[in-house]
Design a protein that fits this description.
The chain is an alpha/beta fold and 215 residues long. Helices cover 39% and strands 19% of the residues. α1 (2-15) packs across α2 (37-52) and α5 (164-177) runs antiparallel to α6. It is globular, with a radius of gyration of 17 Å.
Length: 215
């Protein structure tokens, strides 16, 4: 893994605007649920910031745009949580556009709390020094509005290609660690997560680069 992170970080640093204060570079990292998107985004951010000695890179997670559980419950979508319709997609796209348009402003972004299972507003601050914005989430290449505008405002989108069986095992562990019973974890994985994973997998060929974390 370290060798892969080193290689990817080196390539990213070569892609950044020069001088870096002339603009931002937007990297999308997508793939199925539990493919390793958050981990890869975090490791790349740490490596790039370590090499440069600056807070050059920052992560914007799509999960911060989950609709709150109370809203999902009211709309009858709580059992579908994680599907495209359970996100504030318009707000997500607007935020990415804002980060594009105003690189010299500090902009607040939401995050997702895996303990409360709800989004947390203004949990992340993207600052002017953050010139590499790593956007990670399942639906960055989904070819339906408004998701289909995201690819057009990314400089590069990577797809993490992870086998569905591996995804299934990770999701079962994630749900049980989050407090779900084994029965509920299996229900959620088979009725929601795996169908979502298959939907995301259809977008693989739209990616600029395929990344395999398993090797």
């Amino acid at each position: 893994m370290k060798e892969l992170i080193d290689k990817l970080a080196t390539g990213l640093l070569k892609s950044l605007p020069n001088p870096p204060d002339k603009g931002r570079y937007f990297l999308g990292i997508t793939g199925c649920p539990a493919a390793g998107k958050s981990m890869l985004a975090r490791k790349l951010t740490d490596e790039i910031n370590f090499r440069t000695g600056k807070n050059l890179a920052a992560v914007v997670p799509m999960d911060g745009f989950h609709l709150p559980n109370r809203v999902l419950k009211e709309s009858g979508l709580l059992n579908r949580k994680g599907a495209p319709e359970t996100f504030e997609a318009d707000s997500f796209v607007k935020l990415i556009n804002r980060l594009h348009e105003f690189p010299n402003l500090s902009i607040m972004c939401p995050a997702y709390d895996r303990i409360t299972h709800n989004p947390v507003e203004n949990a992340i601050t993207i600052r002017p020094c953050n010139r590499l914005i790593i956007v990670e989430g399942n639906y960055l290449l989904l070819n339906v509005p408004p998701w289909d505008t995201i690819h057009t405002i990314m400089d590069n989108v990577w797809y993490i290609d992870t086998p569905l069986e591996t995804v299934k095992e990770r999701l079962l562990r994630r749900h049980t660690a989050g407090g779900a019973s084994k029965k509920e974890a299996v229900r959620k994985v088979m009725s929601v997560d795996i169908p979502n994973a298959k939907l995301v997998r259809k977008t693989l060929l739209l990616a600029d680069e395929i990344v395999n974390l398993e090797n």
